[in-house]
Amino acid sequence: MTKNKSSKKIYFLIGLFLLCLEGKAQVIYGTKNYTEYHVGRLPIIISVPHGGLVAPVGIPDRTCNSPTIDLDSRTIELAKQIDTALFKLTGCHPHLIICNLRRTKVDCNRNIADGACGNIEAESAWTDFHDFIDTAQVIAQKQYTGKVLYIDLHGHGKRPYRLELGYGLSGAAYNSTDSELNTASNIAASSIKSLVNTNVSGSTHAQLLRGPNALGTLFANAGFPAVPSQQSPNTGGFPYFNGGYNTFNYTSIAAGNTVNGLQIECDSTVRFGYANRKKFADATALILEKYFSIHQNFNLLTNCGLTTGINEDFTLNGSSINIFPNPVTDLLQLSEKNINGNFEIQIINVLGEVVFKTLNQNKLDVSRLSSGLYFVKLIDEKQRFWTVKMLKQ
Ligand SMILES: [Zn+2]
Known about the structure:
The protein is of the alpha+beta class. It has two domains: 7-296, 3-Layer(aba) Sandwich (Aminopeptidase), CATH 3.40.630.40; 310-392, Sandwich (Immunoglobulin-like), CATH 2.60.40. The chain is built from eleven helices and 16 strands. Strands 1-2-4-3-5-8-6-7 form an eight-stranded mixed beta sheet, sandwiched between helices. A five-stranded antiparallel beta sheet has the order 9-16-15-12-13, with no helix packed on it. A hairpin with a 5-residue loop joins β1 (26-29) and β2. The protein is globular and about 65 Å long. Bound molecules: zinc ion.
């Protein structure tokens, strides 16, 4: 794609990420905090281009090329609640990229000319936002090649109340038969083209769009009507968003990109009110876990990158911790490499509470812990620490 970006900046951001590996997401801010990137560790990237409320007077309202300036209300809050739900479920965060500027000032789901209308500050926010997505894709692809899912999160105010999943295909395409959807030309135009070739569920393109284990079907089964899905295999003649600039540039529609992705347009019933968002966010985390499991044979609960402990003291001297067996039932064995002196071991649950603590022990009786996900943390005499994920059965 052609846009103003600096590959040097991306590599700087990746370097920063490598220095920042921790259970907690690191947040990197763009120019004037107009954009932010919560660095994640899951093979899931969520971007939110239209939820921002910041409207500096120094940036004129966009007027070029008849711009759309509608706010996608509460989509930032929704994305953050999905982040929280995924962390509670898996112990890891998704990558999250947010534009805090109001859409009257910049549109990060358009090309830079239409999105920033030539204003230098708006261009800088636009560039930061897209550099962050590039960075997240490089990091996630490096960790989970070919398994990454990108979601561009939006809100729509139309009827009927339903999620609109945009895979790049026009609304009219869903009036086709399944065999027509499975033609090479329709697959080539699809934002999940890569998944058509790599899925382990044996699904065709049409099945991935509206079969029994399509994303839309999983949402509809959970009580969130969605199009396309098994329940709504076509748009029903209603207006429908098929995906915008980000969907076309950051998924496998784009030449050479193997990231699967889509635009999710959320109706107001899942965006307004904390409890409604939480219900949808919690369901989304479970649905994504199921989706990765079915189509990628990838377990988000046990597979988000931590198999051995990571040295957190940033000297990168080759020190690490390891645990076994993992998953564990009763006795956990701990081994350390290049870590000397006294140390404390903590076991921390996904709420961040220390549920077990001991000194200088390599064999830990964890039989009394309830089953679930934990972090084992070793802290040495210099207060340096190493963390490793543990699944208790
Ligand atoms: Zn939008």
